[in-house]
Design a protein that fits this description.
single chain; alpha/beta; Nucleotidyltransferase, domain 5; five-stranded mixed β-sheet; 11 helices
Length: about 280
């Protein structure tokens, strides 16, 4: 494998995807497998794929603390944190770049997708869970402990349900599992519009990108959210924010993971000037 190529891995809640990517964003090789439900098994599989890659970038669903190297991914590995970085580095024998999937989504979309070149972007991903990747002034926002963007926990109603204790209000009402249980699309769209409106009012982004498995369905999510969010958002902020569907689709996270690895290796990519911390 050429030294300018990196391995990108998206450890999703329903599938695991990987790709070998170069500095231009071209995918050299790729694969998709059922979700790796054991973190040690996931680490072993990543190590087996790494080969001679210049770097390895991995994104995980849930919370990843860049200081401790521990991941909290309840939709994948249960409610306990796992020492993901230590396990991966032990297997690979070298440093590795890991971040949350929402960070990967926004970095990928800002590099090669709908938000290319923008410095203030929010990527809202709705699939098995709900999260938001945030770029503010060109800086990736993680918060003090890697939890920023866990917007599935947004409180969007004063009516408490026990299901909110595990996944949060927005996620419980609008994510894939809720729709599989028979949640009404109209209600899910309203909750999502409220969540997007809150992000627009709080962060004043140039663009909100909508992605994730749920938003790739035939239901006109983008149009519904644009219409409904207008009622809830700060009007000046809303008027200046574009709401667009991802142009990278399910690959947004892979491109983000690749970009993290390329940046960590010092390999130049287009659309630089982003601070990933």
């Amino acid at each position: 494998m050429p030294s300018s190529h990196v391995l990108a891995v998206d450890l999703g809640g329903t599938k695991s995807a990987w790709a070998v990517v170069d500095a231009s964003g071209s995918i050299i090789e790729r694969g998709r497998e059922p979700a790796w439900r054991d973190y040690k098994g996931a680490a072993a599989r990543v190590a087996g794929l790494a080969g001679g890659a210049a770097g390895v970038g991995v994104i995980v669903p849930g919370i990843y603390d860049t200081e401790s190297g521990r991941a909290w991914a309840p939709n994948l590995w249960g409610m306990d944190e796992v020492p993901l970085r230590a396990e991966l580095e032990d297997r690979l024998g070298r440093a590795i770049t890991i971040d949350s999937d929402r960070s990967g989504y926004v970095l990928g979309e800002q590099w090669l997708g709908a938000a290319r070149g923008l410095r203030d972007v929010v990527f809202v991903a709705i699939g098995t869970g709900i999260g938001a990747g945030i770029l503010a002034g060109g800086r990736l926002i993680r918060g003090a402990h890697g939890i920023a963007g866990a917007v599935g926990w947004s409180a969007l109603t004063c009516e408490w349900k026990d299901s909110y204790a595990r996944t949060g209000c927005w996620e419980s009402e609008s994510a894939g599992p809720a729709l599989e249980r028979g949640a009404a699309l109209d209600q899910a769209a309203e909750y999502t519009a409220m969540g997007v409106a809150n992000l627009i009012s709080t962060l004043n982004p140039a663009m909100v990108v909508l992605g994730g498995g749920v938003l790739q369905s035939e239901f006109p999510w983008t149009e519904e959210i644009r219409c409904r969010a207008a009622r809830w958002a700060q009007p000046l902020a809303f008027a200046r924010t574009r709401i667009e569907r991802t142009t990278l689709g399910a690959d947004a996270g892979l491109f983000g993971a690749a970009r993290l690895a390329l940046l960590a290796c010092g390999i130049h990519t287009e659309s630089e000037g982003i601070d990933v911390g």
